[in-house]
Write a structure and sequence with these properties.
Blueprint: H1 3-8, E1 16-19, E2 23-27, E3 37-41, H2 53-74, E4 78-82, E5 98-103, H3 120-134
Antiparallel strand pairs: 1-2, 2-3, 3-5, 4-5
Length: about 140
């Protein structure tokens, strides 16, 4: 059981901003900026690819709505939506969650993006493998 399961079950309080049958959203207690919000499925899965189609669709339906509300409430005009899968990808709580992180006056998420280059032959081969895996 994760801290998010305890929040869903009401064992740990939160500053709730949204809730429905499948999703809970609340303010992050360690925010990177004012309005930093976590959006979680009530389905207890560690990784995005493990979610049911119903759970994933529920998240997809409400994420834009919550983003609009956070922007309106904070006055932010830019924001990041971040979702990590696995400890190597910096996931700390092993329950699917999305961060909505407003960019306000220098606050928010900082990213160093070390872009590589996609070779045409390797790209074609990889795209074919992904298509095959989708099946």
């Amino acid at each position: 059981m994760t801290i998010f399961s305890k929040i869903i079950n009401g064992e740990i309080p939160c500053h709730k901003v949204y809730e429905d049958t499948h999703v809970l959203a609340f303010l992050d207690v360690g925010p990177l900026s004012s309005g930093h919000t976590l959006v979680i499925p009530k389905e207890a899965k560690a990784h995005l690819h493990e979610l049911s189609d119903e759970g994933a669709a529920a998240l997809g339906r409400v994420l834009p709505r919550i983003c609009r509300a956070v922007m309106k409430a904070t006055g932010a005009t830019s924001y990041n939506v971040l979702q990590n899968n696995g400890s190597d990808a910096h996931q700390v709580v092993m329950h699917v969650h999305f961060h909505i992180i407003p960019k306000i006056e220098g606050e928010g998420l900082g990213i160093i993006w070390k872009a590589g280059k996609l070779d045409s032959e390797r790209g074609a081969s990889l795209a074919e493998r992904v298509r095959a895996a989708l099946g």
